[in-house]
What we know:
globular, single chain, Rossmann fold, alpha/beta, 6 helices
Amino acid sequence: MGVQACGDTGSGRLPASVDIAQQVARRFKTTELTGKNILITLGATQEPIDPIRYISNHSSGKMGMALVNRCIEMGARVTCVYAHISTALNDRATNIQALSADQMHQCVMAHIEQQAVFIAVAAVSDYRVKHPVSQKIKKSTTNLTLTLIPNKDILSDVCQLNNRPLCIGFAAETQHTLKNALNKLENKGCDVIIANDVSNAEIGFNHEDNQVIFISQKQQQALAKNSKANIADKLLKIFIKEFL
Ligand code: CTP
């Protein structure tokens, strides 16, 4: 309310610049990631079999989205490349859907150049159907055989780029969690791997809580069971302290 530029008095008056600036500043809780571009993949990829069916997994995208939200609150510009998710998007990120592993690979490669950090949280299908068909496969009494062929590894491919961003991967494991995660850190060539025991029904896939181990060449830090939002916050703080 108040006097407007045209001389009228009433509602519609633009707030003072200082009030606008203060409101914008309040949307960023901290500034640790100000000026950083961060690309995060999340969700469960879907590999088509026919127009009705696909191969996928139980990932909800909640851990990835917790990282998207926290990175934004810390001041980062976030590109969120998402497959199938059961959680709300953050409209302050640049959101791009990429449902299959191949689409996600293309999308990440198209946007990776400007990124300071790449966080691969997506549960990417390791295989796709060699010949998806364009019409619904009809029921029959005989066995049906699908030939699966390997997908590209997005995280490994990003790690091999020249001038690559800092890379964080997630290792979803059902046994030998630490050993398998350490192997992934080496084999994929990333800076950090987050070991995630997805066999535990209380945490991981599609749960509100998680319990992980942050692993880099320098350190291993186990984070006790906590909400995915708190895990995201703690992981980012450890990462920022070591790498930024
Ligand atoms: N990842 C990826 N592209 C793939 C497969 C995995 O970018 N084609 C990334 C995931 O986003 C995750 C990490 O690699 O950050 C590990 O994924 P995970 O599913 O735990 O392991 P895989 O590499 O698929 O190996 P395995 O299935 O043998 O455990």
